[in-house]
Amino acid sequence: MFYYLEGTIAHMEPYLAVLDCGGVGFAVHTTATTLAALKQGEKARLYTYLHVREEMLDLYGFKTVSERNSFRMLIGVSGVGPKAALSILSAGSPEALATAVVTGNEKALTVAPGIGKKIAQRIILELKDKLAKGQLSGEAFSGESFGAPGDKAGEAAAALAVLGYSREEIAKVMVRMDIGSLTTEEIVRQALKRLSIQQA
Predict the structure, then answer these.
(1) Which of these, 47, 20, 53, 51, lies nearest to 33 by C-alpha position?
(2) Interior angle at CA 70, CA 66 and CA 76, nearest 5
(3) Cα–Cα dist 139/169, whole Å
(4) Could you report the per-residue pLDDT of 70-100, keeping only the tens digit for each?
(5) I need a labelling partner for 148 at 20 to 30 A (CA). Which of 2, 30, 58, 122 fits?
(6) pLDDT by residue (tens digit) across 96-142?
(7) Domains in the chain: how many in total?
């Protein structure tokens, strides 16, 4: 319904920011990461997701498109609600989440408050399955297109696909990178910066 909202930050509290858009205050649920980037009284743009449940409408907003994409991806996992998704994204960046999924690192997810080993395993299992079926980037995708299975380039490409980027977008930014000198997470972080510039 809303792609983003732009206005002035009127109020902040844990996991919530009130964005004043032309005299209308939108209560936007968000992560600790996004809150840390906001300042009361200053203008901000939040990329939003409207969560509909029974008779309630909850608005969620994020500083970056990647964070919003990660939130949508997480709440699509069975047993993971908005509160758990916000907890995970408050404990780590979108690229750290995507790398954890691709590498099967459940410990990276359990550092988030309220996230136990079972739910971390479920997140990794379900998202890896969707990635294998090409359901996360909207098309069939394999990290093998960028290198041998299990190598840094392949893992980074798969992690970017987890974050919702297409094969073409990933290939365009990765082809110009010095992948050999970077870790998987550094590749993902640099690729996200380049993708953000392209979308701006």
Answers:
(1) 47
(2) 150
(3) 12
(4) 999 899 999 999 999 999 999 998 888 888 8
(5) 122
(6) 888 888 888 999 999 999 999 999 999 999 988 877 665 554 343 44
(7) 2
Residues 26 and 119 occupy one common structural domain: no
Q: Which residues contact 12 (CB under 8 A, 6 or more apart)?
A: 18, 35, 38, 40
Say if residue 12 is in the same domain as residue 27. yes
Residue 80: which CATH number? 1.10.150.20
Residue range 30-52: average pLDDT? 96
Asked whether the beta carbons of 95 and 66 are under 8 A apart, the reply is: yes
Q: Please, are residues 158 and 134 in contact by the beta-carbon 8 Å criterion?
A: no
Q: Are 42 and 88 members of one domain?
A: no
Q: Which residues contact 159 (CB under 8 A, 6 or more apart)?
A: 95, 98, 99, 101, 102, 184, 188
9 versus 182: the higher-pLDDT residue is 9
Residue owning tokens 């995970």 = 88
Amino acid found at 75: I
CA 88 to chain centre: 10
> How many other CB atoms sit within 10 Å of the CB of residue 178?
8
Whether 54 contacts 19, CB under 8 Å: no
Closest CA to 51 of 63, 60, 38: 60
